[in-house]
Amino acid sequence: MQAMSTTTLPGPDGQPRCRWCASAPEFLPYHDTEWGFPVADDRRLFEKLCLEGFQSGLSWRTILAKRENFRAAFRGFDIERVARFTADDVERLLQDAGIVRHRGKIEAAIHNARCAQALIAQEGSLAAFFWRHEPDPATLGTPQTASTSDTSVALSKALKKMGWKFVGPTTVFAFMQAMGLVNDHAEGCVVRAQAARARAAFAKPGRSLG
Could you tell me the keywords of this UniProt record (predicted)? Predict the structure, then answer.
């Protein structure tokens, strides 16, 4: 029997997977079907960046367990709808026990929706902007050995310059990992090859000419 890497563990089917996905039951489907697969949908990109902001200082397990509650509270993370949230919505969200009730993070999500509107008007889509910051895989180190990268630092600075909040380099790097801008599945993880194939087939979004 082939020895498992120190960065992988056998999954329910006996195939090796990233070690972190065994630490909570809800991590396995997230790891196998979402994490590291490329995303071009603006709503999903906005949602993930918001949720990474809410995770700041907390665990991803906490946020993932509450994700459906967040989606309901933030109207499916529809950018246009969230951008119209008012002070009354902030108070409503602060009373919602199903989410993380942190005023600064709630207000940041609403503020970032307005920043997203401006970015879409400028670039045509969030996807076009974010995928322009995809790093050269040759510049990346060993998977899951870093919490930031030169690219996440640059993207963080760009977003902050445009007014976005809760988008530090670590938050942005986690976003890039999850949305497939990098394939950070461990070497030997059975899903790494699947994510690589999805990335190879992915049509990178460009700036809209409309």
Answer: Metal-binding, Zinc
